[in-house]
Amino acid sequence: MTGKHDLVLERTLNAPRDLVWKAWTDPALLKQWFAPKPYEISEVEMDLKPGGVFRIGMVGPDGFDTGHGNPGCFLEVVDGEKLVWTSALAPQYRPAEGVGEGCESFPMTVIVTLADAGNGKTNYRAVALHKNEADSNTHAEMGFEGGWGKCAEQLEELAQGLAAHA
């Protein structure tokens, strides 16, 4: 399911799906990989259930700072397989208020799916859905492919580290 205003990142990660899922769903682990270095996630709040909060704050060496971040909302959580959240809605499906900087400057919905790829690997797919071409273009110009690609590399590295210490 992709439309003309969607941005898609697909990778096969050399890490087991359960550890990739753990890295996505444990706030302390998410902070370690979800921003392309040298940017960092300064705080995470998540309640993994439909209607639950998903909020991150991001900072960067260039002075970029989203503050506490605008709270988004999980729409779907399928354990070990799928996460869907949106910035268009706040927790409990309330309409979101205002916009921020960076990716918070436009509403989007993100669908992350994980599937076993065999041999301890994971098929990873992230789709960012946008309401129009302008928002999609803005996100692409901000570096969706490079930024989300770098984050996928960091996710893979973290999950590999978790596997090594398991």
UniProtKB/TrEMBL annotation:
* Ranges that cross the membrane: none
SUPFAM superfamilies annotated for this entry?
Bet v1-like (SSF55961)
Q: Which CDD domains does the UniProt entry name for this protein?
A: SRPBCC_CalC_Aha1-like_3
Highest taxon of source? Bacteria
Q: Ranges for the Activator of Hsp90 ATPase homologue 1/2-like C-terminal domain?
A: 14-159
The family annotation for this protein states: Belongs to the AHA1 family.
Q: What is this protein called?
A: SRPBCC family protein
